[in-house]
Write the structure tokens for this entry.
Amino acid sequence: MSEWLIVDLSTPVQYVKGVGPARAAMLETKGILTVEDLVGYAPFRYEDRSNTKTIAQLAPGEMATVVATVRTTKLSGFQRRNLGLFEASFTDSSREILMGKWFHGGYLKDVIAPGQKIALYGKIEYDSYSGRFGILHPEFEILTEDEEEGEAALHVGRIVPIYEAAGKITTRVFRKLIYKAIENLPELDEPLPPAVRGRLKLMDRRTAVQQIHFPAAGEDLRLLNAFRSPAQFRLIFEEFFWLECGLALKRSKARKRTGITFELSESARQKIKRMLPFRPTTAQKRVLGEIARDMAEPHPMNRLLQGDVGSGKTVVAAEAAIVAIENGYQVAVLAPTEILATQHYLYFKKLFAGLGYVVILLTGSATAREKSQLKKLAAEGLAHVVIGTHAVLEENVEFKKLGLAVVDEQHRFGVMQRLRLMEKGTHPDVLVMTATPIPRTLALTIYGELDVSILDELPPGRKPIVTKHVTEDKVDLVYSFLKQQVDAGRQAYVVYPVIEESETQAMKAAQKMHKHLSEVVFPGLAVGLLHGRLPSD
């Protein structure tokens, strides 16, 4: 390795010429460990710097690249917080002068110095005050001696890739490292089947890797910045191809696993009819049919149930639960928050009131004594339905005969958490519910091992949901609308989004909003506050 030559894609990135141990540590922060990771580190945008001119050739209004030498620099204005105006004058072989200006550019006094050779890129403007051409806030790159002898061509005179920096490794350094890596790479194996490549007219992998970093002259800049150039399309397709292959393998393995064969007995049918609070919609009948067919198969069901709020997902889950219970099995329902778990518990209790099923709620806020009693009911099979939060996943929570696991808002749980729930039974059937509207194709990639059922119809009597998007400056109109609704005898919810890093911060943000609404916006109304850290009462 002493000659710093690239052996293959699996070679540690440290041995790429120009990297070494210190830079390798910086690259590792971006997940770049091997040569393959390095050449796969795609630019996040591109700039067309192919229009390279001397200062004398410039015209106002054009976007151009100029390679010039710094003559003078000057900083004026507020230097304390780097808010000043930084100005530099440049010259080149044409002996004309070009001015560069950067507002809030105080930091540049330690970066740009007289005598440096710099590539400038930006919009050319005529400055009537100085009578010279200038560029306001140009993109710039300082060219070193070795770059002047040939490597400068990586940074100017072409469509240039722009990378996200990694520590002190700037976009310019990335260009050089990736160029060296690709230059020294042997032939790349072609992983895609020839029939697939031929049908979609995809370029070979080596050319695609080369062109996403260093596009050919005349490449369409708009396509590049939309990630739709032929090279980008080829590599994006390859990622999806292997993802889908992996998911297909996962699904075929799941189908070979021995599961529970549930029978949709007459007693189950009768109990479903007795339970239903209203006539099921056509969509609910269709979806229950899909679930019942899956449950009757000898392998575990893995199904995603998608539907808007109010479409009746919980009723469908309750119907599936009856099938499992009538076959002598237990059901677990997992919800991401205590509020949602409690809501499910109350709804299931109401639905199952006349059926003689025991429904219990297991959450983190239950006392040790309560938890012990509830766990005993689950372990001895006396509880037919166990509803809860992450508390259900604890190791000492056991089921006598778990047959169906229902997971609500699946995206709030990790894969390992869902797996822990599965392990509490012998390959139980799984029904995952979500209200997040995901297009079918995206659903298949995110929940790839799941079959998809969609509730696309609201039960009778449900009013259509109207969604409006309003910008921050119109918030008073929203508050006015809320006040009108409350005055008409209705209630309103303000859901504060969790955008903070931690639950505690999110709770504090909600408390702050509650204070603002109750004291400033609606001082005459009763404004309540509800979050996950409140006592269950």
